[in-house]
Amino acid sequence: MDQQVVRSGLVEFLRTVAIPGCSLDDIDDSINLIDAGIIDSFALIQVIFYLEQNHGCDLHALGIDPADLGSIKGILNAIQRAND
User: Fold this and answer.
1) 55, 79 Cβ separation under 8 angstroms
2) Which residue of 4, 31, 69, 70 has the lowest C-beta tally within 10 Å?
3) For the chain, how long is the longest CA-to-CA vector?
4) Where are the alpha helices (DSSP H) in 1-84?
5) How is domain 3-83 classified at the architecture level of CATH?
6) CB-CB contact of 76 with 11 (8 Å)
């Protein structure tokens, strides 16, 4: 799976759930999106659904804490674990 393609798709999805007026352009992948005010806790639930529907991620089975999904890097790590 091409990591850059996965990241691009993820960022496009995040744009749909981001708080209006927040930009994801040139964001560091390790920035906590909730702490930075880019997404809220409801959007995090949407991220979980996105992972389940688009990448077959079962967070419970993978042992992933939803708190680990606060950054682009954390979400990408979850996708990679689901595909390993």
Assistant:
1) yes
2) 4
3) 36
4) 3-17, 41-55, 59-62, 72-83
5) Orthogonal Bundle (1.10)
6) no
